[in-house]
Write the structure tokens for this entry.
Amino acid sequence: MTQAIANKVDYLQAFEPFKQQRSAIDSASLQSLRQRAAQRFQELGLPNRRLEAWKYTDVSLLARSSFERAVLSSVSPAAIQPFVYDGCHQLVFVNGYWAPELSRVETLPAGCILGSLAEALQEHPDLVEPYLGKGASFEDHAFTALNTAFLEDGAFLYLLPGTVIEKPIHLLFISTAKDQATVSYPRNLLVAKAHSQATIIESYVGLEGSYFTCPVTEIVADENAVIDHYKIQREQLKAFHLATMQVQLGRNSNFSSLSIALGGALARTDLHANLDAEGIDCTLNGLYLVKDDQRVDHHIHVDHRKPHGTSHQLFKGLLDGKSQAVFSGKVYVHPKAQKTDAQQSNRNLLLSDDALVHTNPQLEIFADDVKCSHGATVGQLDKEAIFYLRSRGLDEVAARRLLTYGFASDVLEQIKISVVRDHLEQLLSTWLPA
Amino acid sequence: MLEIKNLHATVDDREILKGISLTINPGEVHAIMGPNGSGKSTLAGVLSGRDLYAVTEGEVLYEGKNLLEMPPEERAQEGLLLSFQYPVEIPGVSNIYFLKAALNAKRKHHGEPEMDAMDFLLLVKDKIKKVNLDEAMLHRSVNEGFSGGEKKRNEVFHLSVLEPKLAILDETDSGLDIDALRVVADNINALRDGKRSFLVITHYQRLLEYIVPDYVHVLVDGRIVRSGGKELALELEQTGYKFEQEAARA
């Protein structure tokens, strides 16, 4: 217990100077939001395993580490080259701060604002403030509270009604911790007004060292908006990544998300989709690949609040070495949400005897005319299938690799952007045990 | 090509094969018939390298080499292929990708370069047409969602691409209607070139009307109790295995 208190002080030690520094710059409402979040974090402290949502996520390693607030540092274009996707609008953030010299935004349609949140807070407070902090609640979430307390920069996208962005938008978050472990708090706000459409890729990578990324992304998709979202988490293996994503969906909107996670010392994504209108179509997929001592968690919460909503979840995991993964998925169907169609599936393949997965798919249904299903599997490679491949001439390693690849490939096949799909197929192929 | 000498094999310490001897020369088609539980599939399993079985006595020479020492993939690369009684579904791996990997593994084993992608595509498109399977099945996951007949035809399709020296057909006729049986048999017959050998394992004489064997062996209780020409199959069709089973018990 004393440990947790010590850490609260650690994190918030940076808050007072930060507050002073921003007091002349930021609006009163933003300062008040930060103050309330800092206050709430003070009360909550780091989560412990007695909390149901954190039962299987052990943050003690994080609690034992100390992090300095990261600052913007210079990164060469060559250093980011391995993480770049051709054919995308590219916004690069270093340690949570926008790096315009590395960014590359091509001509955008009128009716679209794309840039840094810091800039938008100054230039378009009327567009930012109605949404900022409204979706991602920090009442019960320490890391969302922490992010909000230190909210300063990140990505901002605003699509006026009917605006369509053809090319994907790639938000690339780079951490550059060197000798001293650092923490960054990227904050992203993506607002798609009625009938607008965009594809967004959120990548989190690290160049070296031990660090902590604590991002929050809020997405709003209004009536008939179409948003495809990809999150690619490939932090350094010693890194901590504790992310929140909150999605607010409007009538007949269509939202799809794919979370690719390669783990870290601890990598967790909490994804909350709020289907608070009729006729929403929401697809949440994921693939996690972990080995050695890595940890990766996904906590998904889908709230069906109105009728005729559809939500489909498919999360697949490959675990090798002594890695551990958690999948916790809750689908909550409120009494008014008749004709809901909710499916949820989590499938895991254990490639070693020491890997461990906790899977917990849950349905809570309070409407009577719904179609809901959920399921989870944890298995190993099928011996008969290995023999089948070997009996056609593939050696055992090749057979195991092919079967493992096959297990994960259907998730990757759903990626609509070919440059991202090719890259991730390559990544998977390199990841597979040789 | 294949010499089986006094082969004994067990499953969980239970002896299934009790001394089988059989020689297959290049170009020959041998049929092994027998009632359920006689050891037919065990023989196919031992020859293809399935690790469920323990060989307790005897030896198997394939082209003069000790077959039982080779891992399954080496047997396949050396040209011994098994067509499965129950082909396995491989989700997420396309038929064409798998075949290409298998063919290139064989070529690599023989010191040959990988096959050109376009040549390979032309080859498989030609071969899949011959087994009367839709070309789209090249891009579907191996056997996933295939009907029983489609799975068997897919096995024969694999054989026709991988061109074994010795093909073991384990109950390739089971579950086939007469039209599918003809297609399968026609394709097997098309592979008969005077050098390639076949070991056809079946419960029924019906298949042997279409794939006419040079020799028929009757396997009962882990032993070959009779051998003869193709006419033996017809005889068995009329008398059943009863006589042989009684003889084995005596």
